[in-house]
Structures are given as structure tokens and as C-alpha cells.
Amino acid sequence: MLAPQITEDWSSDWWDQAACRDGRGGLTKVFFSEELQDIAQAKAICARCPVIEPCLAGAIARRERWGVWGGQLFLNGKVLTDKRRRGRPPKNSRAEDQLPEVPIPITLKERIVFRTAS
Ligand code: SF4
Q1: N or C: which end of the chain has fewer CB within 10 A?
Q2: Mean pLDDT of the chain
Q3: Which atom of ligand 1 is nearest to the CA of 21?
Q4: For residue 103, what are the domain limits?
């Protein structure tokens, strides 16, 4: 992924520890995908990332327009609480369409604006 701009008062070297940082940007398409399986993969990577808190704080401060940041799926500065597969919805819900829930650090919960998928 591209290194995010930091607007919070966090140490700027946290990006060195980012689980999504592979030095080649190879995961960028996973973190900025419309596909549920990619979004689920990105969230799973975030869930084991040691710098999830400063990453999410920065995304909130920047009102990220798009992508998975800090374990959350952003759209126009808000965190989507759900995401539907493209096309006609299936008659029966599929387990693979459930995105993993990544806990939000308690220090950031009140700063997030949530929205449901439209
Ligand atoms: S929390 Fe996710 S998006 Fe943020 S640095 Fe870690 S792996 Fe990357």
C-alpha cells in the first residue's frame, strides 16, 4: 500500500510496522477492492496488524474516501457497517458474504461516523 499521510500526533515510524506494507504495493488492490473476498482479506490482515490504532486514527482524521483502513471499510469519510455483493442478492444469505468484524479501539469509537450500505 501507499504510505498514508499522518495527521494525528502519532510517531511517524508506525508505518514501518504495518502488516499491509510489502514494499511493492502488492496488497493495494485488496485494500481498495469492491469484492467482498478482497475486503474480508484486507480486514483479516488489519486484525493482526500491530499499528491498527494509529492507522485508524489517521483514516478518521483524513476522512478517508475509500478502502480498508485500520480494519474498517471507509466510504466518503464514514465507516460502512455492511457491504453487499454486487448484483442481485441471493435468496439465502451466504456465510462467505459476512465480513469479519475487527474491533475498534475504545479510544476511537466516538470519533467514527457509521453508515449502512446503500
Ligand atoms: S491497520 Fe490495516 S491498513 Fe492500517 S497499516 Fe495495518 S494492515 Fe495496513
Answers
A1: C
A2: 88
A3: 8
A4: 12-115
Mean pLDDT of 60-81: 97
SS3 category, 53 = helix
Residue 86 domain flag: yes
> What CA–CA distance (Å, rounded) separates 85 from 111?
28
Residue nearest to atom 2 of ligand 1 (CA): 46
CA-closest candidate to residue 22, choices 2, 43, 47 = 2
pLDDT of the residue at 98 = 81
- Is the distance from CB of 116 to CB of 68 less than 8 angstroms? no
Number of folded domains that form the chain: 1
8-62 per-position pLDDT tens digit? 555 668 999 999 999 999 999 999 999 999 999 999 999 999 999 999 999 999 9
**Ligand 1 lining (C-beta closer than 6 Å):** 18-20, 45-46, 49, 51-52, 55, 69-71
Residue 4 lies in a domain: no
Residue 62 domain-assigned (yes or no): yes
